Amino acid sequence: MSADNGEHSLLRDLEQVRILWQEKLAFLEKEFVVTSDAAQRFGLQKRIEECQQQIERIAKEIESLKKESQQKTLDILDYLCQKVHDIPIVDRRIEIFGTSQKTEPVVAAHWQELMRFWIFKLERKNNPSEYSGLITADDVMLMLLSSNRSPREARALSSFTMQCLGTKLDLKNETVDLVIDKAINNLNDLDGFNKHNTLMDEAFYSVMQSHFGQLLHKKLLQSYIQTRDAHRNNIGGVLFNTAITNSEILNAENATQILIPLLENLTIFCSVEERVYAAMHLVEAFYRPQVQKNDVRIDFLPSLLLHKVVKVLLTAAEQYTVGNYAVSTTAIWALVWLTSAKTCAPYTTYTFTDEELDILRQVVINEKHDAFARSRSALILSACTPEKTILAQADWIYEWVLVADRVKPQSKLPKISHLNCPKDIEVIKSLIFSHLPSIAKRYTAIALGRLGCFIPEMIDPLLQVFQDDMYSRDDRDEALVYLVFIGNSQVISALTYGLNSSKDNTDKYDLPERCFLGLIGMGNLDALKQKNNSHMHENKFFAERGDLIHKIKAKDSTDQWAYYYVYVRPALEHKFTKALKSNPNINLEDYGKVIGSCYGEKPNDTLKALLKGKYGFDV
Fold it and tell me: Under a CB-based contact definition with an 8 Å cutoff, are residues 85 and 62 in contact?
């Protein structure tokens, strides 16, 4: 038994003894009043005095123990006050897609261990006595979450206190509310990628699994509805990853069963909370198949169901009632994943009418809408155009590789074909000039690039995508293509700087190489003079794109079995896989390039050696 618990036990024992003496005193005083015999009265008086002495002695002992306990508490308070005002903050690396150099501020491990010990020791279930002192675990939490913190400290301490909450602390309701509210206020753009990306993500997930989960869910949903723009987007990511889970992955067989109930909850007869929650489940339904099944697109919905989904989501996007912009924002978010508009490949499964596209255009230009609803609507417009988007017109990076390897001259590069979509370009251009969060502005710049609009205002957001290792290779390549077609001195300067930067061994994207290829695409002959290795760039290009190399066993034009390794352009991969299923006599070169082949029903040793030597592929 600890010393503190021993003190509490002793105080209880002394109180019980004092009560017994007080009861005995009351009895003796009553006897003294009714007794007339002098000898008996004398004896009773002596016993009464003894009781009074014992009661006084015990009272002094109790007071002394209380003072000792209070002094210990004051010492603890002084100690904790020093600790909460001298907090060691360190940077923790965040692992996003395995390569990111991003960090987040967290409290040092040794400080966490020490503070956890005291918070646990002082929580109510471990500190039950009324004599336990002047400070509780609630007091410590309040000191940690005081308002006079720097943003860096506030973020680190919010993450720590949420982690503590996940251990099921016994705290007052108002303390729990404060911890959750502070954590929500300190979310940033790095949170919400998955359940275990940042320590804050881990803390939210832990609390969601605890008995505070229902309260956290309610507060996240309310905050998502009441805020807007970047903060709403951050909250939405956390809510999506911690609370939104459909039991099955969407497919052709279960689509009606999963989607119809969610669509019914998006009607105006349901509350805002119900509609937002339903729309977020639709986001999850369309998102998960594409992430967990290697970019499978949502092209398997029955036609009538697909039309219903689009109609309901666009109706929700039009809702202008006060408080419903959260519904609109989430409906557009679901539509982005339905159309795969965040990827560069055009969406052709559903043909939007001009009236339907006008709904999206109105969202883009309406400043009352959430910034992410507006920028995501721009992405949808850019993905659903009936014409070939700029990125779909050629495999631009590969074309620049061929120039770099002197396979073709720069003058033979494909020319862009401008799209005839003036209404879309006009509304999205108005958005790029608006005050938007940085991520929303990046979406807007990408949308303009797809439609063939290249203006200087796109450069900074496109550079942010191109240079940020949080983005995928395809996202960064897409941004590079549009930077090249803008092609002014700012772009040249940025690419030249990137080309001459030192090699980073953790950079799997190889930023200097991409800067070199971008300069080649712009016709920069000085860059071409720096490197002159025949086919070096082409081999490297294919080596980095193993996920786009398809293995095909088929009969050639002479009816002989042959084995092919085919690089398929990203914009044509979806069409390629569909063509393979429906037509056995396709021309592989229409979709990319055969990088190796041999006769037979499996790769021979010569083909294996070629693939290993040129591209590093083990077959």
Answer: no
At what angle are helices 371-383 and 438-450 packed, to 10 degrees? 20
The pTM assigned to this predicted structure is 0.79
| Percent of the chain that is helix, strand, coil (3-state, to 5) | 65, 5, 30
Element (H, E) at 474: helix 473-486
Instruction: Check pLDDT > 90 for residue 38.
Output: no
Residue 583: both structure tokens together:
């037509």
pLDDT digits (tens, 9 = 90+) for 540-571: 888 888 888 888 888 777 778 888 888 888 77
Please check whether residue 534 is in contact with residue 510, taking contact to mean a CB–CB distance below 8 angstroms.
no
Determine the Cα–Cα distance for residues 200 and 188; give it in Å rounded to an integer.
10
Q: Tokens 């009816």 correspond to what residue? A: 559
Which residue's structure tokens are 């549009």?
A: 482
Residue 482 CB burial class (10 angstroms; 0-12, 13-18, ≥19):
buried
Q: Give the Cα separation of 85 and 385 in Å (integer).
A: 57
- Residue 552 forms beta bridges with which residues? 564
35 phi, psi to nearest 5 deg: -90, 135
DSSP one-letter string for 307-329: HHHHHHHHHHHT--STT-HHHHH
Cβ atoms within 10 Å of 553's Cβ, excluding its own? 12
Q: How far apart are CA 161 and CA 153, in angstroms?
A: 12
pLDDT band at 71; cut points 50, 70, 90: low
Taking the C-alpha atoms of residue 82 and residue 128, their distance in angstroms, rounded to an integer, is 25
> What is the secondary structure of 523-557 as a DSSP string?
T-HHHHHH---TTHHHHHHHHTTGGGEEEEEEE-T
Q: Identify which of 281, 251, 253 has the alpha carbon closest to the alpha carbon of residue 266.
A: 281
98: number of Cβ within 10 Å: 8
Six-digit token pair at 450?
Answer: 């797809």
Tell me if residue 441 falls in helix, strand or coil: helix
Length of the chain: 619
* Cβ–Cβ < 8 Å for 380, 335: yes
Q: Are 107 and 162 spatial neighbours (Cβ–Cβ below 8 Å)? A: no
For residue 210, give both structure tokens.
């605890």
State the greatest distance between any 2 C-alpha atoms of the chain, in Å, as a whole number.
137
